[in-house]
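Before a colleague's protein record goes any further, I have to sign it off. What it holds is a sequence and that sequence's fold in token form. Would you go through it and say whether the fold makes sense for this chain? The record follows directly below this note.
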Amino acid sequence: MMNELQLRIIEQATPMFLHYGIKAVTMDMIAARLGMSKRTLYENFKEKNELLLACLEKAEDDRNVRLKTYYAQRQNVIELLLKVHEDILCFMRNASPAYFIDMERYYPKVYDRYVREKETHKHAILDLLREGIGEGMIRSDINLEIVGTLLSLQFELLKNSDQIFKSKYTFTEIFETIFKSFIRGIATPEGVRYADEFFAGRENK
């Protein structure tokens, strides 16, 4: 269990990694941001790999808490998927492509953890889609395994959207176009109506 100082370090280091990329952020920079000595930082995290993994684990724990709240308060599976969509959108708006590139190239242990998390999320989505079929919100004539894989691949597309679209569109435009197409493809007419009302209500805010 993390102590109060370690949590404070993670709270400052996480947005730095996301914004600048992992490789560009040094332990010296993190210590300076926190106003502490480098020695104190290393007493709490022996190396950047350890700190990065702790940041990833804390972000995952926080995300799971939010997901439990979404699950408990949901009206149906479509609403839950839309809440998850907004959660991912919030995260990706703050994440530089360099964050994912650096993780894969230079921090294989951390990247392996990230890949395992993605696989866990994929299985959770498949379980939700099965529930949605029972609710009459998700079509029963689709291959859920293919849908889960395509959703995962779409997330990879988002990470490289700057290179693919040459910044012609905002990240939000790209993400919402992909997600709306995804929802419309798997939802029943009732599910599509619910999703349309959700997006329309947000646009009118």
